[in-house]
Amino acid sequence: MKNYRPTHECGVFAVFGHPDAAVLTYYGLYALQHRGQESAGIVTAGASNSPFIRHVNMGLVSQVFSQNDLERIKGTRAVGHVRYSTSGSSNLINAQPFVVNTARGQIAIAHNGNLVNAAVLREDLEENGSIFQTSTDSEVILHLLAQPSEPSGVFSALRKVHGAFSLVLMSEREVIGVRDPFGFRPLSIGKIDGAWVLSSETCAFDLIHAEFVREVEPGEVVIIDEKGIRSEWPFKKERSAFCIFEYVYFARPDSIIADINVARVRTEMGRELARLHPVEADVVIPVPDSGNYAALGLAEELGIPYSHAFVRNHYIGRTFLQPSQLIRDFNVRVKLNLIKESVEGKRVIVVDDSIVRGTTARARVVNLREAGAKEVHMRISCPPHKYSCFYGIDFPDPEKLLANQLSLDEIRDYLGCDSIGYLDVPSMVRATGQKQNQFCLACFNSDYPVPVDPNLDKYVLERRGHRPNLLAAEPSSPNLFST
Fold this sequence. Notes:
The chain contains 17 helices and 23 strands. It has 483 residues and is an alpha+beta fold. The chain folds into two domains: 229 residues, Glutamine Phosphoribosylpyrophosphate, subunit 1, domain 1; 165 residues, Rossmann fold (3-Layer(aba) Sandwich), CATH 3.40.50.2020. Strands 3-2-4-1-10-9-11 form a seven-stranded antiparallel β-sheet. The chain has a six-stranded antiparallel β-sheet with strand order 5-6-7-8-12-13, with helices on one face. A four-stranded parallel β-sheet has the order 17-20-21-22, with helices on both faces. β7 and β8 form a beta hairpin. α4 crosses α5, α9 packs across α10 and α9 runs antiparallel to α15. It is globular and about 70 Å long.
């Protein structure tokens, strides 16, 4: 069983109306690198109706773009993307943003999220003549937008997709930001030197000295053109279902979500965890980096010294050689090494953001025992992960999730720790200062805001005799991609 951590989805960024749009997007993606490290890309354009210029490649942002690349793709409009493959394989053909030529002109798209009806839509599109170049669900949206028979443009196309999607689109005259009606994934609006910017997280605005204006609301479509910025609301109103794991793990601690600093929320999660599962100990240590602030909050609440006993290697990259016979627990030790003097002979509380499969956490406990820790107490700053995520987080099948298969006592025994304590849902939500009905908590309680049935594919619907016409056109409505 391989070591497993929850993996990031993607990050999107866009600029309208700035002469250095490509450079701003480069730095924006650099700030969003934590959301995806497999590939990066930027598409730019200059004046209205000018050709799009695209540059994408595998690797980190700093590896994909050189100074010459940024000079070559200069423009006043841009959309950018960093990717982790929650849908589609990890190869260059799936790198975003995607660009297509349509009857309405050129369209570029960058997508953060995951569609639950992508497979059915894709088969319907292929039956109607669409030819797909990638294995991603994001390309489904692009083909829907390109449908020549669709009279109602982008709104009707977007209403056909179900699931999580925060999008930035670029047409020949506009940059468009879209957030699904449930608001699963973040998307924010900023401004710099009179130009408009869109970003998955506000930390990107800080880097480029842009002013944070506001978040894109769930179900909102923001259209930016030469006349300024305006909003449309083409979706049916839904309940709010923001992914609370953005606060727990994904978002950078210096980002602001719902007017709350992420680091502050994580620190409060640690305080809640301390109140829920107090224990006597000599030192509190985080699993860096996502456990840092929760560990700090727990240590302050319990009045126990805080120490960075685990040292993270920030320069790992891809590992092609796996010397498992030479170095035990190589995948664990190459990322984090332990300062023995910080834990030897001590009762240790280890704070992490989550446990997925449990193999990494188990190896951490072994390392601590080998270093001479007297006791090891695991504290987790979110509830047990028991169910899969279908909205853009790469959690494995439930049977591979430790908390789905074992009781708390069995998890403690499997990890080899003296005690284990998870944050519960009410305490986690309370740390955000918001209400429970504002979040998606499906990976904890299986309450999926958008219904998900893996067996309800096209063929099942056909056999039942009531397959919907998913590509049916809607009555005419305003077309954003006007010429």
